[in-house]
């Protein structure tokens, strides 16, 4: 291959008859494809040496060899495709080191080599060109913005050439769609004159797959010609009739394929949404067509989606001719046993209520709202969530349409559900707030307050509310109080009196949580007895009451930091026995205020005093308290990374193992799967914290493994370059260490305790995470060796390694096949093991679970091709 690369003589000087080495070149290309696909850790080297050589050989004479060279380069692009948290903004690529920036530098050479090939007679070559360009866009979004001029002749040729096969046209259209989606609309405006007729011709192609793909491209073209999210000077008006008539013809045609019908509906929806203001006269023809399609069982889902696009358009297209028919029809869809139809119908109803409520009367909307109560169920929280969003909009825009007598009991059932959390809970809170704002008769603040407190006050002995229900009810009370601020202090005061007189733990928990949630939004410092009253609950017998009191104190502090934060910090110092609960209160303060810019502005002045107090307790004797301290430290570092991270680095040098444990553990809480301002700093110093894997103290090594696992799982780019140094330490922790095994005498019996088990579990968990996120940087044979050792370890580790074995059989079957015997023997031993006759029931259950997991691993191994030979 080197000889081929160094030849200066143009390859066209040789005839195919003289060329006897094409098999060698083809084999070399296939070999390179395999190397690229399996050795991702060498990507930078590939871009230095292989990429220029492969680009140079795109001019290969032999069609099959050329195809294999293309596929080798496509493998290189697939290996470069973003897989983690790295940002690949094409405008900032010069700051991104490594393969991505190297690829960007080579894009002009790739286009230069491909451009003439896109007009070759060979269909196979042209298909490979489009395949490569699509993969290039996947690896480097926006990379072709400067090269559209060069690509247009090739696109035109493939779409207009009468000799192009159906697959050729589909590939060309598919690439054009990717091109339009991945670039700024203004890039294509000079070429619209050429693109529209090409795509229009493809729409009327007799082969349905080409027509389907063309309609998808046409829909993208509509967004490009008249983007709604940006201002352009492009004159789109001349193209509107052409786009509209072309799509209308397909929409009306009764004989087209189902997929073409759906795409035509979507395309027309996009045209009306983006260009409806210049199609006012055509709406009288088009909107009734949508109504027809909406009544057709086959096309109703596509029609709902298209109408949602139109209803959400900022052009506010006139839908009044069909609203009277659309809303009852959507209401009937809510009864259908088709989840996607329900979800999309709810979204459309919500959009119509927000944007078009002046154009229909409340009685019309009532027909749809009557169908909502059965959807408010924990069995499908996503449907319930969208139902609540719709009901909230209805309460805000058309409160008279509500059928709240039927809805509220279902909402209350949902509030009591242990599954109601996150977005679904937030939607519930907004619904209650909208009800209070609507100021409807028989739905006053006091009525809703009594209704929300009733499940706790009237709780029967046999009816136990789930813990989550208390949190949900407390948040609901706070949410409605936000709409009537004058009630905040009286309600909180009454709840405090109830706490002092209360005899039941459940009501006590509810009162504390509710005071906390109200205090989160209102300054309750005027209630003098509040902090001491909450603090007195720290001494309760019930753990639930203690946890609720801790949460309440932290939440109340969020409402008035200057008043309550010094109180919490003083109490942490003064009350060692209550330290754990008070630290949880402090964590609540940090977590809540870190969520918003306004909260951060409140928190930042207090960071030095919080930081100093936390460092005093890094070495406290209670592990639970140390863990909370570590979490607080990590969350604080996210607030002021430049100022605080060096403090953690310095503390890492401490002689105290407890201090080092807390510091390394805190790093785990600075790593998330979302981009953070701390990421560039972490990239520079994460190695210092993870090198704690070499610490002499087992406890420090264990938390270092947990931090390593968190980094690999959430942000692999932080540790990818450190793997060669960290993996030997990781593998070292998978081994059984005799010095960590001790015997404990329990009366006449001796019991063996393995202090290294938790560390080994953490190490194997880290290896399991590496399977999904970093296997391309791992020596797989060495990795397998340690997995196989785990197959003979403790029960917990066996369970992990069985999972790993099954996954490895899928990810790297060839490597597993080479060491199959070493997997089979320990698995056979587990499957044939018999439990002792005098063993307890738990031992039998444990062994059965182990055998089931082992058999799943065996089944995965058996599925590898040639495993039975």
Automatic annotation (TrEMBL):
UniProt-annotated stretches for the region Disordered: 1-20
Organism: Phlebotomus papatasi
TATA-binding protein interacting (TIP20) domain: residues covered: 718-867
InterPro entries: ARM-like, ARM-type_fold, CAND1/CAND2, TATA-bd_TIP120
Record-linked Pfam families: TIP120, TPR_CAND1
GO BP, one annotated term: SCF complex assembly
Keyword line: Repeat, Ubl conjugation pathway
Lineage summary: Eukaryota, Metazoa, Ecdysozoa, Arthropoda, Hexapoda
Regions annotated as coiled coil: none
Record-given protein name: TATA-binding protein interacting (TIP20) domain-containing protein
Biased composition (Acidic residues): 1-19
Ranges that cross the membrane: none
Family under the similarity heading: Belongs to the CAND family.
SUPFAM superfamilies, per database record: ARM repeat
């Amino acid at each position: 291959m080197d000889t081929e690369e160094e030849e200066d003589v143009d390859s066209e000087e040789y005839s195919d008859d003289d060329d006897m080495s094409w098999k060698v070149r083809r084999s070399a290309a296939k070999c390179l494809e395999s190397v690229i696909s399996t050795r991702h850790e060498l990507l930078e080297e590939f871009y230095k040496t292989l990429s220029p050589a492969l680009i140079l050989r795109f001019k290969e004479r032999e069609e099959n060899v050329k195809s294999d060279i293309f596929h080798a380069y496509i493998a290189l692009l697939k290996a470069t495709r973003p897989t983690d948290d790295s940002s690949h903004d094409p405008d900032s690529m010069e700051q991104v080191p490594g393969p991505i920036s190297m690829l960007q530098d080579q894009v002009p050479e790739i286009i230069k080599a491909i451009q003439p090939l896109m007009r070759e007679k060979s269909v196979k070559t042209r298909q490979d060109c489009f395949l490569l360009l699509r993969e290039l866009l996947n690896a480097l979004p926006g990379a072709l913005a400067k090269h559209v001029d060069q690509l247009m002749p090739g696109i035109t040729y493939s779409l207009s050439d009468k000799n192009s096969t159906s697959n050729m046209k589909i590939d060309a259209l598919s690439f054009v769609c990717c091109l339009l989606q991945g670039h700024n609309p203004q890039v294509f405006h000079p070429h619209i004159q050429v693109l529209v007729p090409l795509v229009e011709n493809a729409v009327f192609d007799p082969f349905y797959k080409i027509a389907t793909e063309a309609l998808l491209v046409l829909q993208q073209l509509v967004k490009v010609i008249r983007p709604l999210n940006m201002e352009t000077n492009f004159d789109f008006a001349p193209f509107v009739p052409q786009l509209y008539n072309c799509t209308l013809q397909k929409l009306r045609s009764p004989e087209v394929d189902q997929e073409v019908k759906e795409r035509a509906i979507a395309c027309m929806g996009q045209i009306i949404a983006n260009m409806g203001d210049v199609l006012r006269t055509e709406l009288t023809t088009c909107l009734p067509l949508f109504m027809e399609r909406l009544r057709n069982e086959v096309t109703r889902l596509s029609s709902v989606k298209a109408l949602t696009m139109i209803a959400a358009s900022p052009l506010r297209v006139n839908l009044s001719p069909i609203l009277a028919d659309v809303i009852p029809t959507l209401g009937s869809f809510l009864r259908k046993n088709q989840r996607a139809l329900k979800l999309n119908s709810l979204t459309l109803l919500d959009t119509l209520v927000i944007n078009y409520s002046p154009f229909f009367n409340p009685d019309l909307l009532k027909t749809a709202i009557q169908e909502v109560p059965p959807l408010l169920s924990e069995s499908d929280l996503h449907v319930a969530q969208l139902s609540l969003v719709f009901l909230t909009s209805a309460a805000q825009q058309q409160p008279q349409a509500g059928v709240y007598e039927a809805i509220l009991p279902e909402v209350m059932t949902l509030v009591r559900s242990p599954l109601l959390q996150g977005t679904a809970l937030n939607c519930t809170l907004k619904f209650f707030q909208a009800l209070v704002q609507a100021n409807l008769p028989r739905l006053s603040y006091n009525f809703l307050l009594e209704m929300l407190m009733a499940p706790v006050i009237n709780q029967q002995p046999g009816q136990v509310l789930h813990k989550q229900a208390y949190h949900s009810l407390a948040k609901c009370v706070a949410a409605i109080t936000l709409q009537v601020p004058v009630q905040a202090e009286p309600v909180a005061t009454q709840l405090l009196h109830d706490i002092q007189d209360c005899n039941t733990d459940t009501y006590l928990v509810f009162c504390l949580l509710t005071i906390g949630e109200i205090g989160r939004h209102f300054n309750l410092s005027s209630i003098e007895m509040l902090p001491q009253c909450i603090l007195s609950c720290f001494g309760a017998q019930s753990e639930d009451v203690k946890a609720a009191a801790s949460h309440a104190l932290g939440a109340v502090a969020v409402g008035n930091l200057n008043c309550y934060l010094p109180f919490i910090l003083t109490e942490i110092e003064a009350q060692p026995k209550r330290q754990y609960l008070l630290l949880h209160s402090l964590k609540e303060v940090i977590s809540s205020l870190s969520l918003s810019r306004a909260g951060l502005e409140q928190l930042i002045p207090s960071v030095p005093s919080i930081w100093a107090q936390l460092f005093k307790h890094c070495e406290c004797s209670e592990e639970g308290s140390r863990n909370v301290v570590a979490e607080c430290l990590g969350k604080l570092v996210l607030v002021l990374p430049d100022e605080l991270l060096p403090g953690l680095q310095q503390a890492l040098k401490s002689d105290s193992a407890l201090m080092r444990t807390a510091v390394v553990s805190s790093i785990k809480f600075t790593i998330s799967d979302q981009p953070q301002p701390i990421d560039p700093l972490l990239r520079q110093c994460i190695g210092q914290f993870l090198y704690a894997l070499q610490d002499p103290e087992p406890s420090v090594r264990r938390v270092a493994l947990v931090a390593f696992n968190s980094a690999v799982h959430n942000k692999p780019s932080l540790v990818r370059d450190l793997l060669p140094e960290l993996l030997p330490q990781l593998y070292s922790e998978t081994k059984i260490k005799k010095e960590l095994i001790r015997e404990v005498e329990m009366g006449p019996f001796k019991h063996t305790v393995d202090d290294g088990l938790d560390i080994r579990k953490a190490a194997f968990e880290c290896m399991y995470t590496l399977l999904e996120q970093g296997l391309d940087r791992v020596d797989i044979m060495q990795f397998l060796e340690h997995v196989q050792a785990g197959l003979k370890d403790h029960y917990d580790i066996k369970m992990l390694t069985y999972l790993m074995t099954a996954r490895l059989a899928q990810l790297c079957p060839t490597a597993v096949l080479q060491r199959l015997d070493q997997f089979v023997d320990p698995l056979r031993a587990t499957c044939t093991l018999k439990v002792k006759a005098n063993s307890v029931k738990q031992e039998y259950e444990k062994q059965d679970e182990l055998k089931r997991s082992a058999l799943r691993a065996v089944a995965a191994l058996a599925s590898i091709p040639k495993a039975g030979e």
